[in-house]
Amino acid sequence: MEYTEIDKTNLKKLSTVALGTWAIGGSDWGGTDVKQSISTIHHALDLGINVIDTAPAYGRGESEKIVGEAIKNISRDSFYIATKVGLDWSKGDGLVYRNNTKENILKEIDDSLRRLQTDYIDIYQIHWPDPLTPIEETAMTMKSLLDAGKIRAIGVSNFSVEQIETFKKFAPVHTVQPPYNIFEQDFKNELLPYVKNENMTALYYGSICRGLLSGRMTADSKFNGDDLRNADPKFQPDRFPSYINAVEALDKWAKESYGKSIISLAIRWLIDQPISGIALWGARRPEQLNAVEGVGGWRLTEEDYKTIESIVNKYVKEPVGPEFMAPPVRTL
Ligand code: NAP
Is any atom of ligand 1 closer than 6 Å to the C-beta of 37? Predict the structure, then answer.
């Protein structure tokens, strides 16, 4: 396992692979199995993963509750919890709405601490920008939590450079959480150079593109119930085969060049970016994490990045991003 640290905080030695627990929450992923989820979290820790990313919105509290159950008897200083704030499901229509008001943040932090069975959060992240709340109000509230010791680092997710710049007038920003993987590369255009310059840490989400980069899928793969991949444009018949072809070609290249499979390549591709970064690996069954052993001990060269790019461009003629996941803005 390789490690990084978060500048201007006391957070040192964080594993560059983190466990993502959205699927563990069940909603948007066709359900959950609590026992299996807890085993997955324990297995992640056994493998040297010491960062667990969750959010209240994942399973409407369920993911945080499961994380809390899994860690309650484990020494609190042996792992880091990253959770989020600002998605509100109280309207009861099945959707989550962006809500970064002071009132909502102060309510959510206590709910999260209770569900996680802890008295502090290591990385507290604004889940999505909320155009109806002044960034000043959100940032000052986050700063008050940092000053009170309830949180140890402030993060923002799905924010633009401009939004982060505004936020930083009122509170520090230690981490960002953008989507980033071999098939979804928007981050590298504006945000990556900014993060590098500001010496922030990036927690990349969708590292294996919701399983596509695992190498386990075929063009016939099906997803159960409310699984978000049923609505993901990459997984629809008009695009899915081209992505699967790209995965096969990347897997072949990784095996021939490094004796590694596509899933290790997908994570390595993130860790070798020129900034402090942590790849969030979503898993809900322990064995899904075993491939983590193929991630360490090798590096991608600049030439490799170009080759990977050309393989993707050869097969994926109509690329599409993860925008379909953006939650709605509430109405006042
Ligand atoms: P991901 O990590 O790209 O993919 C996760 C899915 O890939 C798993 O649920 C699993 O699906 C499949 N998978 C994992 N390991 C596998 C293996 N070894 N073999 C085959 N399939 C495997 O996507 P993600 O979970 O969306 O993203 C990671 C984390 O980022 C999330 O859990 C969450 O913590 C965070 N996130 C944050 C945001 C945000 O807005 N800030 C948005 C999305 C995600 P199956 O179990 O169905 O096979």
Answer: no
